[in-house]
Structure formats: C-alpha cells, structure tokens
Amino acid sequence: MQPRRSLRLVAGALVLALPLLSSCGFGKATDRVYTQAEGINHRTGPVAVLNAVVVAAQPDSGTFIASLSNNSGEDENSFESLAGAGEWQDLTVADIDPVDLPVRGFANLADEGIAITGDFGAGDVMSLTLTFGSGDTVTMNVPVIYACDEYTGLDSSTGGSSEPSEEPEESESPSPGEVPTDDATPTEDESSAAAPSSEDTYDCAVVLEEE
C-alpha cells in the first residue's frame, strides 16, 4: 500500500501546483520584450520606434530623439517628418531631411535630433506623430525629460554654443567725436540687442538630487 499512497500524495501536489504553473504561461507580461529606459517604444508596424524622448535643457524647447528600425525584410523606408498631435498640435517642430531606412536598417536620431518649441517642460508627456515614406504614421505619447546625466548635451533646440565667444580686439583710441557723452543713454532697442537672452536652464545638480 505504500507505493499507492505515495502516488496519491504526488498527484495531490500536482493539483495544488496547477494554478501556480498556469500563471507562468505564455502571453503574460513577463514574456513581453522590455527594455529598461526612460523613453517609450512602439514595436509594431513597418518601423519600430525605440526609446523615444524629448530632451529638454530648459522650459519651452527640447529635442526629439529615438532609434528607428525598419522591420521589413523586403522594402526600404524613410522617416519623413514629426508633428504634434491632439492637444499638442500647436508645437513648432523643425523640418528635417528624410532619414533613409534600408531593408532591416537602423537609424539613431540622437546624432541629429529634431528641435521642438512650445509650451511644455520636463515631466510633460507630449503626443507626437511620426510619418514614414511608406505612408504609415505612428502616434506616441512621448515623455519630456531633463537634459541631464546620460542625456547631457543632447538638447540642440536652443541653437546656442557652450564655447566662449572670442574677446574683441582692442581698437585704437576713438576720435573725440566718437566718444559718448556722460548723459548719452542707449535706446531700448540697443539695450535689448546688447543684453543676451537668458534661458531658464534646468539645474542638473538639483534635478539629480531630487531623483
């Protein structure tokens, strides 16, 4: 009788384990492809859009970057344009030259991102539509992230340069007629032209400390 009793115990253990085994079946969240990153992915369709983000060094402007992978094994494709969608249609997005995507090809937009300006800041999630040469479009909710840590220097939307400007060469002494009088004040236009515009740049030291 001992073998028969052992068989019953084993069968009972298997019955109890069935719910646990079924929870590990196919099609579960743990079986899906997941890449840990701050950006968003869109893997279906002719072109996969990977780790899409808008990198912002300051409020109201940023740079869209993503990786594009042509899923087709037969047809070439291209990335043609980017535009705001839904409530984000008022965004101003820079024009781009088409980005070629050969068969099974790959392109990284981080090399030359797309400048975006509008009313937004880091922490927002913007609806953006990508258009491809095949006529297909992909609309994604793209997060706006700080241009800090590994994203430092990737926001080219301001068009500014971090290199110091060259110091002007000393000129010869001006003639008496060129010397301004004490009561001469610059006009409003002259003052605004002389004063560089100050951007409200995010402080990465503070941002990283808060995270």
How would you describe this structure in keywords?
211 residues; Immunoglobulin-like; 3 helices; 10 strands
- State the share of residues found in helices, binned by percent: 10-25%
Count of individual beta strands: 10
Label the overall shape.
globular
CATH architecture verdict of the domain at 31-151: Sandwich
Number of helices: 3
Q: Give, in order, the helices and strands.
A: HEEEEEEEEEEHH
CATH topology of the domain at 31-151: Immunoglobulin-like
CATH superfamily of the domain at 31-151: PCu(A)C copper chaperone
CATH class of the domain at 31-151: Mainly Beta
Overall structural class, as computed from helix and strand content, comes to alpha+beta
Query: What proportion of the residues form beta strands (DSSP E)?
Result: 25-35%
Oligomeric grouping of the chains:
single chain
Largest sheet: 10 strands, mixed
Radius of gyration: 28 Å
Distance, first to last CA: 64 Å
The overall pLDDT, averaged over residues, is 78
Question: Can you tell me the residue ranges where pLDDT is under 50 for at least 5 consecutive residues?
Answer: 29-36, 160-168, 188-198
Helices and strands in order, then pairings?
Blueprint (H helix, E strand, L loop, with lengths): L1 H21 L17 E3 L4 E12 L2 E10 L6 E8 L7 E2 L5 E3 L4 E3 L5 E4 L7 E8 L4 E10 L41 H7 L9 H7 L1
Parallel strand pairs: 2-10
Antiparallel strand pairs: 1-2, 2-3, 3-7, 3-8, 4-6, 4-9, 5-8, 9-10
Structure commentary:
The chain is α+β, with helices and mostly antiparallel strands and 211 residues long. It has a domain at 31-151: Immunoglobulin-like, CATH 2.60.40. The protein is 17% helix and 30% strand. The protein is built from three helices and ten strands. Strands 1, 2, 3, 4, 5, 6, 7, 8, 9 and 10 form a ten-stranded mixed beta sheet that branches. The longest helix has 21 residues, at 2-22. It is globular, with a radius of gyration of 28 Å. The relative contact order is 0.16.
